[in-house]
Amino acid sequence: MACVKLGSKSDAFQRQGQAWFCTTGLPSDIVVEVGEMSFHLHKFPLLSRSGVMERLIAEASDEEEEKCVINLPDIPGGAKTFELVAKFCYGVKLELTASNVVYLRCAAEHLEMSEEYGEGNLITQTETFFNKVVLRNWKDSLRALQTCDDILNYAEELNITNRCIESLAMKASTDPNLFGWPVMNHGGPMQSPGGSVLWNGISTGARPKNVNSDWWYNDLSTLRLPLYKRLISVMESRGIRQDIVAGSLTYYAKKYLPGLNRRKNTSESSTRLTPTVLGSPPSEEDQKLLLEEIDRFLPLQKGLVPAKFLFGLLRTAMILKASDSCISNLEKRIGMQLDQATLDDLLMPNFSYSMETLYNVDCVQRILEHFLAMDQITGGASPCSVDDGQIIGSPSLTPVTMVAKLIDGYLAEVAPDVNLKLPKFQALAAAVPEYARPLDDGLYRAIDIYLKSHPWLEESDREQLCRLMDCQKLSLEACTHAAQNERLPLRIIVQVLFFEQLQLRTSIAGCFLVSDNLDGSRPLRSGIAASSEGGWATAVRENQVLKVGMDNMRTRVSELEKECSNMRQEIEKLGRTKGSNTWAKKFGFKLKSQMCSAQEGSVSNHNSNSGKIEQAKHKKN
């Protein structure tokens, strides 16, 4: 830290308890009281340097008291600063630093210590040191700004605060690799005009290390919120990048909001952003004010801060009962980048007094609505379809698909909550567009968990809930599970069995098509590699594997046909019991004809393709 020494005499002051005495040999003729401290001094050194002291001494002398007593209650910096002022008046050695120059400059102005009362007076000395030394150095400018907080009114009148802020903003907004900030100002090696490192004035040829753009984050986090806000505003007016501003705000928030660090890993908390342990955390009211200011200053742009950090702010805002506008803004910010969130982020506890549900499902619903609204604005909600497992639609469908998978996982996590009402579960599940789910396996899993945790639901409610999923978009494994799931309504099970059979028929037809292609390609392959025995062995193995796969599929189709036949008999019995067959027609398709066509198709495919396999074997032999 830079410093300048004023005066030439040795220290001639001694402290005894709450009093300072000048040991020049002459008896004291004036007592100056500053707070609880008394200074036993002499009139002449004081009135020869200060206009205020000259007037006060003259007024006290008119009262014809034995000893002149002057009270200075409002001097900037208090007794500690006046001690330095008194030493300056006596010509004692005085060291100017970034830590005391602001106090001395304000005290000198308050006591009118101008050039009118002596050449090289304290105002001139402190002003010169402040402009030529402090403002040119990052650390000194920061330290001077910190001292302004204690005497802000005096510092504002002399424009000291603004000058410190402008100096810091200029240095932070400048590329540190161009002018050496903060390398030169942090006590590092000096640089030559060519950019190489200097040692004792001799160029070493080594190049200095590049400095990241976040080098000043920790320094500015030592400022109190009002000064930090003013500095950030000036930086933004100077055109500093938005991501740098967002990074500084994130650092500042993590330092003074302990709630943001509670969910961090131990490895992270031990290496970064842990200055909160150095002192007591702010009060809840101060944390609430800080959080609302952070939300106000954060740029409204996607991806500037991690989604996990935004969720942490939202969770803390709910705990501290921040304003509704603050919570709404945070939900909108999260909605802009919901595709970057994780399931752990969404699992926010419900902090309301009612405690209807374990997790805050309503908040997730609002965040999802913000995401879908933003997706429509950006053109990401164009229609699409699922054709042969390929997603057809706009290129921006990927974030929507990721969010759909995330919401399905969230539904599965909150489904066991017995207090979660059916309309709320249905509303969140239905909010995801149909095109966003290539498969409904995740939604089926969530519905199954909800039905298991809410066994008292009526049949109509179960059927209404199951209508949220599309049986045609269930994978073969999900269909197999659903066909044996006793919690699903009978109507849904029949639909699942029907579409599972269609999937199996399609798969078998595809396998036969592959077999035909293999048969057609083998003569060509054998003609090319007639001398290689490995080609024949590969073809035989492929044929065997294909045959085993088709046998397994035919076995599964046979089992499904038996199950469908048994169910059809049960349905007919129920229809005869009720006296009509209208109940069976509610399934929306002709079950008997479909079963017959499925059987005929499987048998015909089996006969025709069995012949093809025998012909292929005959050719190989």
Description:
There is one protein chain. The chain is α+β, with helices and mostly antiparallel strands and 621 residues long. Among the domains are: 3-159, Potassium Channel Kv1.1, Chain A (2-Layer Sandwich), CATH 3.30.710; 337-379 and 399-469. Helix content is 57%, strand content 6%. Mean pLDDT is 77; it is low at 183-198, 265-278, 381-396, 521-533 and 579-621. Residues 600-621 are annotated as: Disordered.
Q: State the helical fraction.
A: 55-70%
Strand order of the largest sheet: 2-3-5-4-6
Spatial extent as radius of gyration: 41 Å
Number of strands: 11
Strand content: 5-15%
CATH fold title of the domain at 3-159: Potassium Channel Kv1.1, Chain A
Gross CATH architecture of the domain at 3-159: 2-Layer Sandwich
Q: Report the sheet with the most strands, covering strand number, pairing sense and barrel closure.
A: 5 strands, mixed
Number of helices, where a helix is a run of at least 4 consecutive DSSP H or I residues? 26
User: If you average the pLDDT, what whole number results?
Assistant: 77
Oligomer: single chain
- Overall geometry comes to elongated
For the terminal residues, how far apart are their CA atoms? 94 Å
In the CATH scheme, the class of the domain at 3-159 would be Alpha Beta
Low-confidence runs (pLDDT<50, min 5 residues)? 183-198, 265-278, 381-396, 521-533, 579-621
Class by SSE composition: alpha+beta
Could you state the CATH homologous superfamily of the domain at 3-159? Potassium Channel Kv1.1, Chain A
Family: Belongs to the NPH3 family.
Keywords: Coiled coil, Ubl conjugation pathway
Domain BTB: 28-98
Pathway: Protein modification; protein ubiquitination
